[in-house]
Amino acid sequence: MIYPHACLALLSLTSYVFGVPTADPLIGQAIPLTRRTPSRFLDIDERGLIAQAQRDAVIARYFGKEPAVRRRSTGSNAIVDQLYDSGYLGTLAIGTPPVSFNVLLDTGSSDLWVLGTSCGSVCGGFAMYNASASSTFQNTSTPFDIQYAQGEAVGYVATETVQMAGFSVTSQGFAVVDALSTGFLSTPASGLLGLAWETIAKSERMPFWQTLASSGTWDSPLFAVQLTRYTNDSNAQALEPGGVLNLGYTNSSLYTGSIEYTNITNMPSYWYIPLSSVTVQGKSIALDGNAFAAIDTGTSNIAGPQSAIEAIYAQIPGSQPATGSWAGYYQYPCSTTVSATFSFGGSTWTMSPADFQFTVLSGSQCIGAFFLVPPNASINGVSWIIGDAFLKNVYTVFRYDPAAVGFAALSNVATSENGLNNVPVPSPSVGSASAAVTSVNTGATLRTPGLIKTFMGVIFVRMLLV
User: Which tens digit of pLDDT belongs to each residue from 387-442?
Assistant: First the structure.
């Protein structure tokens, strides 16, 4: 729950716990998120390698090849901001008895996976899932292999009881990872929670969020995120409070005005919507054809086609392509305040200059948050990837049915959480579930929100009294 005062929103755990909140009959629970910041822990070359790996990951994910298409309550989860606003963590619990894990929240993928105890030395120091300690573990004996530009995660698909924000899903498909590329994760993350659609799930299992949304368990078939900013805070620590993930409702204390939705017009896979305009320094940037943008919490920055990125930096005197590990990015004079806006068909949303400035390259040169993707690269017209550099400036809603992404202006309560110092980071813990769903794999390879409703015979909802 986000309380009227920002500090209470971060400090109070009386109505929720981090992994699986206890029920609040009035508003719902809050899942605080956590961020991490390496500004004083990594040198600029290491930062460049991280940025390059993320750029490569975005290109591989969205532009490598086209993906194959194949009763009511609310809850929230506190977020942890990790690695200088480059990753946001939530917590969920897996197994019986339940054990909590920090996982990266990623609307650009669809699989839930965590490290297993069979993982080798590369997983030393991470919290790991122990299948033999859970009475509800079921191995499907299906291999799991997911490729990212910065590495690979390999394991097997299983089913388990998964809890998050007061919701429990039994027989939830997920992957136990027993081999992982070195440096793929940073503690305290032990895995990843995909929040995109089942059609792109490598496990071929319905994502946790989609099971809940399609079953009618939530008050509203949607989830929403509010992300904090610490990039311009010189006192930021390695982990900071990162905002909140709302499940099944929108928290009106975190935004003002109305939520403006843009429908997903094609088969849902990634959360991509039409992009109608981009401006930098008040200058409109030409968009090639019918531009679409994927809204991705798992990407720190913003990717765009080469022609548009070149036009963006042409508005900034003294900017030039960066080199070495920063190839694909641009550098510009840190003394320049850069204003950028986006429109998805209605209102214009402004991106803070603090978010445009990704990092300081030297005393006078900075790296911008916009980077380019290969020429002519797109999937179904998706040529832009909109990550956290923009999403920190809006309250973002991901709606299941009808499938859409919505934005709203942040309230003073939300913006007052940016850069708060000496505030405890939410710690993972396990609470009791207030609503439970049993998910049964239908074997279907093609689902839209409407089609999922035809399979409701194999999804059973059981509401627990609280």
Answer: 999 999 999 999 999 999 999 999 999 999 988 877 877 766 565 556 778 775 64
The answer to whether the beta carbons of residues 165 and 224 sit under 8 Å apart is: no
C-beta separation of 271 from 39 below 8 A: no
Q: Which of 111, 296, 355, 388 is catalytic?
A: 296
- Secondary structure tally for the chain: helices H, strands E: 8, 29
Instruction: At 382, give phi and psi (nearest 5°).
Output: -75, 110
Q: Which of 24, 81, 85, 106 is catalytic?
A: 106
Peptide bond into 97 cis (omega under 30): yes
pLDDT in tens, 175-215: 999 998 887 788 899 999 999 999 999 999 999 999 999 99
Question: Minimal CA–CA distance to 146: which of 108, 118, 97?
Answer: 108
The helix, strand and coil proportions of the chain, stated in percent and rounded to the nearest 5, come to: 15, 40, 45
Q: State how beta strands 277-280 and 151-164 pair.
A: unpaired
DSSP codes, 376-425? T--BTTEEEEE-HHHHTTEEEEEETTTTEEEEEEEPHHHHTTTT--S-PP
Neighbours of 462 (CB within 10 A): 12
Q: Establish whether 388 is a catalytic residue.
A: no
106 is catalytic: yes
